[in-house]
Specification:
Blueprint (H helix, E strand, L loop, with lengths): L5 H4 L22 E3 L1 H7 L6 E6 L9 H14 L4 E5 L3 H13 L2 E7 L5 H9 L3 E5 L3 H14 L3 E2 L5 H7 L1 H9 L7 E5 L4 H13 L5 E7 L4 H4 L21 H10 L3 E5 L1 H15 L9 H11 L9 E6 L7 H7 L10 H8 L4
Parallel strand pairs: 2-10, 3-4, 3-6, 4-5, 7-8, 7-10, 8-9
Antiparallel strand pairs: 1-2
Helix pairs in contact: 3-4, 3-7, 4-5, 7-9, 8-9, 9-11
Length: 352
């Protein structure tokens, strides 16, 4: 059967009304990539089976499309004409695309100077009304929650429960792709905490086994790890630059129920894992996506996680083209040579 999106494929697990017509871009069905070279570097000789769930292959380049298809479908079903969200970028791009698909007006609030250019460009291309605020994501979320209570506007941030109904399908897919079972460890970045909450909900509902959840937060934006709100979060991983997660309580429940872990990762560690993903496995992601892998590496190195014979799935939440500036800054500049065969030969076979 031709793939027609997560609502169509998992309709029996998503409590939409029968009359709700899916607003879809055929999201989901993303690749689960075996990463043997990376596994051997992380845990030599341990027999770790490492997989990368490449959510950057969704239509707008991030996992947000899973939840947005359901949130926008429900908004249309309820008669909404306008949707609104606050975002560090990925939610904004996804909301803008699905709103365009549905013919809805879309307003997005972004923190001034704190959104990657690839994400901002997508929002504008999809026709969203982008509002840059002098404040953080957390300030933006507060504002959109307040305005949606005063005006007939559908709020499509992850506080919207329909978002989680879509995002949980990632857990279903992982189990299906692993032959009907859950992994031992499920590793992912934690920002607003909607994704870790949704995945755990999905595993519990699907009944194919329960993994331990391993969350990674950037050190400069690690409120759950530290047990307190971070007033001015800072990290190179813009997608998780959040100081007061909307799904904090549910994330803690997921960690407790799964006997899982959450850890803080430095920007330096995030970038090391980010580079390993591209150079060892050919998987190009935005920096935040590497945080789950960095968390796995850290906990194995500390002895808090035994990798022997285990299966781990790391969620690659967004494509690398979401944040091209980081890739350019991290890369060596191209070598300039004359357009001659001799000059090229010196590179191909340099003299001793």
């Amino acid at each position: 059967m031709t793939w027609q999106g997560v609502i169509q494929h998992y309709r029996g697990h998503i409590p939409l009304a029968a009359a709700a017509t899916p607003i879809t871009l055929n999201e989901g069905n993303t690749a689960l990539i075996r990463a043997d070279r990376l596994a051997e570097q992380i845990a030599p000789g341990a027999g770790l089976q490492l997989y990368l769930k490449y959510e950057g292959l969704n239509p707008t380049g991030s996992f947000k499309d899973r939840g947005m298809t359901v949130a926008i479908t429900q908004a249309v079903y309820e008669g909404a004409k306008t949707v609104i969200c606050a975002s560090t970028g990925n939610t904004a791009a996804s909301a803008a695309a699905y709103s365009a698909r549905a013919g809805l007006r879309c307003i997005v609030l972004v923190p001034e100077g704190k959104i990657a250019l690839g994400k901002l460009a997508a929002c504008l291309a999809y026709g969203a009304e982008v509002v840059s605020i002098e404040g953080s994501f957390d300030d933006g979320l507060r504002l959109v929650q307040e305005i949606s209570q005063q005006y007939p506007i559908a709020l499509v941030n992850s506080v919207n429960p329909w978002r989680l109904e879509g995002q949980k399908t990632g857990a279903f897919e992982i189990c299906d792709q692993l032959g009907g079972r859950a992994p031992d460890w499920h590793c992912l970045p934690v920002g607003n905490a909607g994704n870790i909450s949704a995945y755990w909900m999905g595993y519990k509902e699907y009944g194919r086994g329960l993994p331990h959840m391993l969350g990674g937060q950037a050190e400069g934006a690690a409120p759950i790890v530290r047990g307190r709100v971070v007033e001015k979060p800072e990290t190179i991983a813009t997608a998780i630059r959040i100081g007061n997660p909307a799904r904090w309580r549910q994330a803690v429940e997921a960690l407790d129920e799964s006997d899982g872990l959450i850890t803080a990762i430095s920007d330096e560690q995030i970038l090391v894992s980010w580079k390993q993903l591209a150079s060892l496995e050919g998987v190009f992601v935005e920096p935040a996506s590497a945080t789950g892998l960095a968390a796995l590496q850290k906990e194995i190195a500390l002895g808090n996680l035994d990798p022997t014979g285990k299966t781990a799935v790391c969620i690659m939440t967004g494509h690398g083209l979401k944040d091209p500036d980081t890739a350019i800054k991290m890369a060596s500049p191209p070598r300039a040579v004359p357009a001659t065969l001799d000059a090229l030969a010196q590179i191909v076979n340099p003299s001793p």
